[in-house]
Predict the 3D structure of the following.
Amino acid sequence: MENNQQIQEKAKKAEVIGIRRHCLGTDGDGVSTLVAFHGCLLRCKYCLNPQCHSSFDSTREKTPEEIMDILRKDELYYIATEGGVTFGGGEPLLKSEFVRDVLELGAKKWHITLETSLCADRTHLERLLTYIDEYIVDVKDMNDRIYESYTGRKSNLMKSNLKYLIDNGKAQQIICRLPLIPGYNTDTDRDRSEDELIEMGITHFDRFSYIKRDSIIEEDGHQWKRITLADIRERQKRKEKAKNFWNKFKNGSIKGFFTKEIIIEE
């Protein structure tokens, strides 16, 4: 059984899936370092970082002090280029206490960016409100149906948190990402999303296109794995074949003797 000291030490750590130094113009302005956390509430079909859902390797847990030791190495670059640190993931808001603890160790001259889907409880946003200089919000699409179809969750949390930031004077510090997602939205959908966001007070956008992969992320027990679209099509064919078989059997066009060993997938 863990003692109190072990529990406290564990609570001070966070699961990090990667730290990328010397980023230039990709995750914030200037030279920046990206700190990507494990864990996310969304289940996006073309997730760019599926490792954030996989079972975590505890050897990659970091303390705030360990993270800051890495970040400080590039402080001169941050200051000279007006760059800094970007917290991403996964969903960095889920680690808001940890992010705050890192920044409290000394990051006042750095530009701090949060790369987020805004899918986290409001308390996380409130905790970091005074620390964040820029928000890169992965909106996906403002259409509720499209958003839920692609992410597996309803859009109300994202929208309410976005409104909270705007109401707190952060509109000019927000960049909203509006990707074109093959099979889920169109350029017309993106135009509608942008119009809706402009009405809310957003003026900065990042429009780009996803390159359609030949696979998606799927849950398998407690693991997340990538399966090919060919596998999905084959599964659909088997299901349709089974459905047709049982319809014919019920209609009497197929006769025979069946045992309990016959299993129809899903």
Notes: The mean pLDDT is 84. The longest strand covers residues 14-24.
